[in-house]
Structures are given as structure tokens and as C-alpha cells.
UniProtKB/TrEMBL annotation:
Matching SUPFAM superfamilies: Terpenoid synthases
GO cellular component terms, A-Z: cytoplasm
Protein name: Farnesyl pyrophosphate synthase
Listed GO MF terms: (2E,6E)-farnesyl diphosphate synthase activity; dimethylallyltranstransferase activity; metal ion binding
Organism: Miscanthus lutarioriparius
Length: 355
């Protein structure tokens, strides 16, 4: 699914928050290596130690840090107690562990080469398809961490349900992406806005945008059933984020965004190709059908020229404006000003981003 790195930390956490966050990672990893449920050998301990560092670390930790930032806003404080900080950081790391689990398996399914500037875990010598089991272990670490630190809390069952539901939604979104993008013959007629939206919402928006805020709400003693609107707003925000990502893949500056876009070559169900299909005449459609999904630079150039001819940059900027205005209106309709602040801080972090 080639999940985008998400830029969602509210204040991206101050230096102190980041230092505390990193410190708690070490403690959680230590606990996983000392779990009494399994008799580890020296070799298996070394493997897990290296595997967890390789896959859980290395990202920007935006999802995890945004749990802490959101919790502070919901509580109306600048500084959390030691216990509150520990619990918020622990839930943040559970999200980072979840991300690692998704990415390890995702890279195998996509046959990717690199992730976060280093070889994908399964590409590392001696790892190969052991990475499948490593993904399963990473997922199980989340359950172990939640049980150790949250069992006995009134919201423990809600946390378990939340992680299970978000994982199910993400895996189902990944399935939709895989069978739409990779199954058999390439068929652009399968691509439309409804399909694109469904893939994006389930594959990315729930775990990247809703999950961190839902964790913060549970920590603050709230009942998630009362925050259906908040869930919908965050999923909309996640959709907007992915549309930006699709746009930047084609029109962003590779020097600036740090990666060269390959959505056209990879036959992705991108927002741009969906918009092009909606707007193209028969002649323009035939150009798309002939050139989309081919790695030949001449074919890619023809697709990009068509996007420009169809004025998709203007279409995107109009979409961005409309999305922002609707999100702001929906956020300002929320009864809690603290919730409004959390949502606005997410939105302002990503609005008009250029990488």
C-alpha cells in the first residue's frame, strides 16, 4: 500500500516530549525482551532486539507524538504528570508498533526495495520471509504492552477494541488496494473516486489520523461513542492528506519532498488518474490507457502532460480550498473547544503542505 509518512503531530512535541518518548521506547522494548511468556534463547533475543529497532524506529514518530500532544490539549495542561506522560507515550508507541507491523508486511506484498532510506526488512540478508513472522510478533507486542500497562484501567477493553477495529479496517483497505491495483490485467476502468476514497479511508486515515486522537480521548476518560463526529472529521482529514500525497507525487519537487514519485509507473489508484478519467475525452482516455503504469519515462511524460492539459493542478487547489473550508466548519461545530483545538492543530499541520 506504500503508506505515506504522515505529518500529524500537533506541535510535533517539544524536545522534552521527544526525549521522554524515546526513553519510554527503551523501557517498552526491554519489557518485550524479558517477557516471561516465552523462554528466549540468546539468538532469538538478539533477533527481536535488532528487528524491533530496525522497524519501529526510523520514522518521524508523528502518530505516536500526537497522542501526547492531543492528551495535553484535552486535559488543558502544558505539563503532564510522570504517570500520565508514561501512559500517553506507551499508547503512542503502540501506534508506532502497529505502523511497523503494517509496513513490514506491506513491503513484502509490494515487493518494495527501500523504506525510510534503508533496505526493507525482508531485503536484509538472512531475514527474507522470516519477516512475515516478525510482523506477527510486532502485532503481538502491542497486545502484551496494553495488557501490562492498561489492564485494570476502566478503558482497557475499549483500547483493545479500538486497536482491533483499526487494524481490521486497515487490513481491509489494504486488500481493496491490492486487488484493485495488482490483480491480473491492468484495468483503468476499475478506478473511480468512490474506489479511491474507500481505499484511502480504510488503509490510511483510520490508523494515522483517528487512532492517535481516540487513544488520547480514552486516556482523558471519554467514551468514544460520543465522538462519532470527531472520527468522521479525522477520517476526512486523512483522505485530504492522501489526496495531497497523490498530488505531490506528481507535481511536488523531488528535491524538496525527499522522494521521487512513482505513482504513474506503479499503476496506483491515485486521485490524479481518477480525476483525469472523469474529465478526459475518448482521445485523452486512450493516451491514459496506453501510457499509465509503464516505467518508460516517455510514457510517464505523456501522462503528466495530459494531467497539465486537463488542468489538474487547478482542480487540486480548488479541492484543497473546499476541503479546508468544510473541515473548519465541521470542527467549529464541535461543542468542546478542547476537541476543536486538537482537530485544528492536526489540520493546520497538513494544510497546504508541500512535502
Amino acid at each position: 500500500m506504500a503508506t505515506a509518512e504522515v505529518v500529524v503531530a500537533n506541535g510535533s512535541g517539544g524536545a522534552d516530549t521527544k526525549a521522554a518518548f524515546k526513553e519510554i521506547y527503551r523501557k517498552l522494548k526491554e519489557e518485550m525482551l524479558e517477557d516471561p511468556a516465552f523462554e528466549f534463547t540468546d539468538e532469538s533475543l538478539q533477533w527481536i532486539d535488532r528487528m524491533v529497532d530496525y522497524n519501529v524506529l526510523g520514522g518521524k514518530c508523528n502518530r505516536g507524538l500526537s497522542v501526547i500532544d492531543s492528551y495535553k490539549i484535552l486535559k488543558g495542561v502544558d505539563v503532564l504528570s510522570k504517570e500520565e506522560t508514561f501512559l500517553a507515550c506507551t499508547l503512542g508507541w503502540c501506534i508506532e508498533w502497529l505502523q511497523a507491523y503494517f509496513l513490514v508486511l506491506d513491503d513484502i506484498m509490494d515487493n518494495s526495495q527501500t523504506r525510510r532510506g534503508q533496505p526493507c526488512w525482508f531485503r536484509v540478508p538472512q531475514v527474507g520471509l522470516i519477516a512475515v513472522n516478525d510482523g506477527i510478533i510486532l502485532r503481538n507486542h502491542i497486545s502484551r504492552i496494553l495488557q501490562r500497562h492498561f489492564k485494570g484501567k476502566p478503558y482497557y477493553v475499549d483500547l483493545i477494541d479500538l486497536f482491533n477495529e483499526v487494524e481490521f479496517k486497515t487490513a481491509s483497505g489494504q486488500l481493496l488496494d491490492l486487488i484493485t491495483t495488482h490483480e491480473g490485467e491492468k484495468d483503468l476502468t476499475k478506478y473511480n473516486l468512490t474506489v479511491h476514497r474507500r481505499i484511502v479511508q480504510y488503509k490510511t486515515a483510520y490508523y494515522s489520523f483517528y487512532l492517535p486522537v481516540a487513544c488520547a480521548l480514552l486516556l482523558a476518560g471519554e467514551n468514544l461513542d460520543n465522538f462519532g463526529d470527531v472520527k468522521n472529521i479525522l477520517v476526512e482529514m486523512g483522505t485530504y492528506f492522501q489526496v495531497q500525497d497523490d498530488y505531490l507525487d506528481c507535481f511536488g519537487d523531488p528535491e524538496f519532498i525527499g522522494k521521487i514519485g512513482t505513482d504513474i509507473e506503479d499503476y496506483k489508484c491515485s486521485w490524479l488518474v481518477v480525476q483525469a478519467l472523469e474529465r478526459a475525452d475518448e482521445n485523452q482516455k486512450s493516451i491514459l490507457f496506453e501510457n499509465y503504469g509503464k516505467s518508460d519515462p516517455a510514457c510517464v511524460a505523456k501522462v503528466k502532460d495530459l494531467y497539465k492539459e486537463l488542468k489538474l493542478e487547478e482542480v487540486f487547489h480548488e479541492y484543497e480550498r473546499e476541503s479546508y473550508n468544510k473541515l473548519i466548519a465541521d470542527i467549529e461545530a464541535q461543542p468542546s473547544t478542547a476537541v476543536q483545538t486538537v482537530l485544528k492543530s492536526f489540520l493546520h499541520k497538513i494544510y497546504k503542505r508541500d512535502k
